[in-house]
Structure formats: C-alpha cells, structure tokens
Amino acid sequence: MDSIELAERKSRAWAVMLYVLGAVLLLSELIGMTVLQRDFVDGFWLGVALVCAVTLLPWRRWLKPDSPINRLLEDEVVREHRRMSCVAGFWAGLASALGTAPFAHDGMLSAYDVSRVVATAALFAAMVSFATLELRAAR
Amino acid sequence: MTMVERAERKGRARAVLFYMMGGILTVNVLLPLLPLERDGDPASKAVVLGSWLVMIALTLCNLLPIARLTRHPLAAFMDDEATGAHRIKALAAGFWAAILSGAVLAIVASYRTVGAVDAAKLIITAAMVVALSSFATQELRAAR
Amino acid sequence: MSELLNSLKDERERLGLTQAGLAERAGVSRKTINTVENGVFVPSTTLALRLARVLGRPVEAIFRLADDQ
After folding, report:
1. Within 13 Å and on the Cβ side, how many CA atoms surround C65?
2. B115 in contact with chain A, both atoms CB, cutoff 8 A
3. Which residue of C has its CA nearest to A2?
4. Interface pTM, i.e. ipTM
5. Residues ≥6 apart with Cβ < 8 Å to B72
6. Chains that touch A (3 or more CB pairs under 8 A)
7. Domain residue ranges of chain C, discontinuous segments joined by +
8. What does the alpha-carbon distance between residue A134 and residue C60 come to, in Å, rounded to a whole number?
9. Dihedral angle, C-alpha C27, C31, C33, C36, nearest 10 °
10. Nearest chain A residue to C39, by CA
11. Taking the CA atoms of chain A, what radius of gyration do you get in angstroms?
12. What is the mean pLDDT of residues B18-40?
C-alpha cells in the first residue's frame, strides 16, 4: 500500500474515531448531568474531553513534521478543515453559553455545569464538523 | 482618496474598534464580580447584564462577514480573502479561549463560589475578547 | 460557489493519472486533489503552482477566474 492510500485509510479511521469520541463525550455529559451524577462519571467526562481537545490539535505536525505520512495527514485541506471546525466549535460554545444563561439564573445549574455544557457543545461541534469535512473530502 | 486607501483606513479603524470592544467587554464582565458591585440591587444588575448582552450582540455582528451582504463598493475591499482568513483564524482562537476558560472556571468553581450566570458570561467574554483581539492584530499586522 | 474554475480533472486524465497518482506527485493527500477538482477547496498559490508543474502546463491553463468565461 503506498503512502497516499495509507494516509487515506488513516484519515478515514481518524474521522470515524472523531465521531465516536464526540458521541461518547456528549453521552457522558448527558448521563453525568441527569441520571448518574457521580464523581466517576465526572472524571470520565474530563478524560474524554481532554482527549477530544488533543485530537483537534495538529499534534502530528508538532511531533513528527518530517514524516511523509504526517505531511499527507496534515496537508492544506486538513488545516483548512481544522480551522473551519474550530469556527463551528466557537459558535456552538457561544450558543450553548447563551442558552444555559436562563437556566443558570434560577440556580438550576452551577458554574461547573455551565463550563461542562459549553465545553461539550464546543468540542462536539468541532469534532463532528472536522470528521464530516474529512469524510466528505475523501468521497 | 482611492477605494483601496479608504478601505485601508476603515480597516485600521475597525481593528482599533475591536480592541476597544474587547476592553469594554472585559471591564463589563469583571466589574460585577468586584466586591463593590456585590451589593447592587437587582435592577442595576439587570441593567449591567442587559448592556453586556447588547454588546455581545453587536460584537457578534462584527465578527460575521456582514459587509459582504451589503452592495457597498467598499465591502469587497474590507472583506476580501485576507480578511476572511483572518476571521477564521480569530474565531478558531476564540474557540480555544472558550475551552480553556471553561476548564479554568470548572477548577475555580471547585474552590470558590462562582455564579452560573457569571461563568457563562466569563466564558463568552473570553471567547469574544480573544477572537476580537486576534482579528484586530492580524488586520493591523497585515496593514503595516 | 467558487470564483475559481479549474480543468484539473481533464489535465489529470490527459496524463492517465488517478487522483491518488496526482496527489503522490504533488505531495498532498487525495482529499486535496478531490476537493480542488470539485471546486470545494481553493488551493494556495504554492499548491496551484506545484500542480501545474506536475501536469506540465502553465497554471493559468488549469485555473481561471469564473468571470473570465
């Protein structure tokens, strides 16, 4: 398998992983805020959120910029997709912060809850957007 | 003055305005958190919140490529490729600011009482201020 | 959508190259070639020049402005 095909396969797998991670993040947030308000679930959410944040960073370019595969996995289009997905995350974060404000007023939500809701919305939107753009480009 | 010169002047003024808006937003969100504001009556708190919301709405309008919707001859110069690229980078920076400020707030909220509305305002303000400053800085740097 | 039109696909097929083949020669992913061909992604000047060099054609033979029609 040549490097182009390998890069394409890795890119598709990465996109699928982003969808899965995003879903796990969203689920753990929903569960943690409703039915299972436990420290374990909080910790799990935090771990998943950190991993999600890392997936959106250009770590391949930072760690091994000269690798031929990494150069393909981090080319112009991928950088553009990353920026566009961060923009989607920005708007989702903003909308969720504004959306939680009415509920925050009556003490239904704490500051910690608001932080988690915003982070979840922003990361989820960014990851789903990134994955969708990547898969659409690879069709 | 040519269109390009006019657009350059307006672009610089817009960048300065963005810095100012960022500063005002920051002051607006931090002021109610200071002890001297804590005994404010609900009416004055509502006014502060209302003014903050209006500012956020105006700032958001400035971060959107609204100029392109107008048919103004300057719009094409003020919202060209470079500005579009600057906007995307600025919003991406705002995204990371929202994530980081949320993370910091979550930690702080474990040790100190932070109001949920204050938390939402702080996160939004952090995201907007970073986006505005980043946009303004890129625009001014490009215009040097 | 795009102000830029291109005949990248025609030029690529003229040389009997697949998208992957062109991607390999240009040093980018196949996704990039695909999105440029479909007009979804506007390539940077560097990439446009690289593609032109790989295809052995002047860049303006491959890319042109939509209002040049």
Report:
1. 2
2. yes
3. C24
4. 0.91
5. none
6. B, C
7. 4-63
8. 28
9. -130
10. A137
11. 17
12. 78
Where would I find the beta strands (DSSP E) of A4-114? Answer: none
3-state secondary structure of C64: strand
Beta bridge partners of A69: none
Amino acid letter, B138: Q
Give the number of residues written for chain B.
144
Let me know how many helices (H) and strands (E) chain B has, helices first. 5, 0
The number of helices, as runs of H, and strands, as runs of E, in chain C is: 5, 2
Find the farthest-apart pair of alpha carbons in chain A and give their distance in angstroms, rounded. Answer: 59
Query: For a pLDDT cut of 90, what percent of chain A falls above it?
Result: 63
Instruction: Supply φ then ψ for residue C5, to 5 degrees.
Output: -105, 155
- Mean per-residue pLDDT, A85-110: 88
Q: Determine the residue type at B24.
A: I
The per-residue DSSP string of A68-107 comes to: HHHHHHTSHHHHHHHHHHHHHHHHHHHHHHHHHHHHHHTT
For every residue of B27-84, DSSP letters joined together read HHHHGGGSGGGTT--HHHHHHHHHHHHHHHHHHHHHHTTGGGGS--TTHHHHTSHHHH
Q: Which residue from B61, B34, B63, B31 is spatially nearest to B47, judged by alpha carbons?
A: B31
Nearest CA in chain B to A107: B116
Contact A83, B93 (CB under 8 A): no
Q: Write out pLDDT tens, residues C14-27.
A: 999 999 999 989 98
pLDDT at C1: 46
Residue type present at position A84: M
Torsion (CA) A37, A42, A45, A47 in degrees, nearest 10: -160
- Interface A-C, measured as beta-carbon pairs within 8 A, has a size of 53
- Please provide the CATH number assigned to the domain covering C4-63: 1.10.260.40
Which chains does C contact via 3+ CB–CB distances below 8 A? A
Tell me which residue of B144, B114, B138, B129 sits closest to B19, measured CA to CA.
B129
